[in-house]
Amino acid sequence: SSHLQKKRRAATARRQHLKSAMLQLAVTEIEKEAAAKEVEKQNYLAEHCPPLSLPGSMQELQELCKKLHAKIEAVDEERYDTEVKLQKTNKELEDLSQKLFDLRGKFKRPPLRRVRMSADAMLRALLGSKHKVCMDLRANLKQVKKEDTEKEKDLRDVGDWRKNIEEKSGMEGRKKMFEAGE
Which residues form a coiled coil (predicted)? Predict the structure, then answer.
C-alpha cells in the first residue's frame, strides 16, 4: 500500500506544480495585457489629443475655449449613445439567457420505450373512457356491389395513382393503414 500512497503523493505534487505553473503563466499574461493597454492608451491620446498650446490674446483664448466646449459636447453625445447601445445589448442578452434557462428547465425528455399496442389499446389510451367501440373490422366493412368491383378492377389495371393517394391521406387513411398492419 505504501507504493500506492507514493503514487498518489506524486500525482498530487504534479497537480500542484501544474496549478502553480498555470497561475504564473496567467499572471504574466495579465501583466502583458495591461502593458499593451497602456501603450494603446498613450497612442490614442497622442493621436486624438495634441499637446495644448495656449494662445497669447484674450480673443484667441475664448475661441479655443469654444472649440474645446464643442468637442466635449460631441464626445459626450457619442459616449451617451454608446452607453444606450450597451444597455440595450445587455438587456437583449439577459432576455436570451432567461429564455435559454426557461427552455432548459421545461423540456426534460423522458426516456422513451417502444411499446407494442393494438389499435384498440391505442384508441383507448387516446380517447379514454369515450372509447367503447371494439375494432370489429368486419362490422365496419361496407357492402360492395358487383359493379363497383368491376370499376375498381379497371382502375387497378390502369393503375390510377391518385385514387391510391387519396385512400391513404388524412386520419382515416392512416387508420386504415394502421389496422391493415395489425
Answer: 27-106
Write the CA distances from 47 to 40, 43, 55, 74, 158, integer angstroms: 11, 6, 21, 17, 86
Question: Using the 8-state DSSP alphabet, how is residue 118 labeled?
Answer: -
Q: Which helix or strand (DSSP H or E) is residue 51 part of?
A: none
Run of H or E residues at 90: helix 58-106
Question: Among 44, 96, 51, 35, which Cα is nearest to 75's?
Answer: 44
Would you state the cell numbers that stand for residue 42, as one nine-digit string? 498613450
Rounded CA separation 108/49 (Å): 58
Residue 150: all three cell numbers together: 368491376
| Three-state DSSP class for residue 159 | coil
For residue 74, CA distances in Å to 59, 71, 86, 111 come to 23, 5, 18, 61
Residues 131 and 124 sit within 8 Å (Cβ to Cβ): yes
Q: Each residue of 105-141: pLDDT tens digit?
A: 766 667 777 777 777 777 777 777 665 555 555 566 6
Tell the residue number behind the cell numbers 494603446, with chain if given: 40
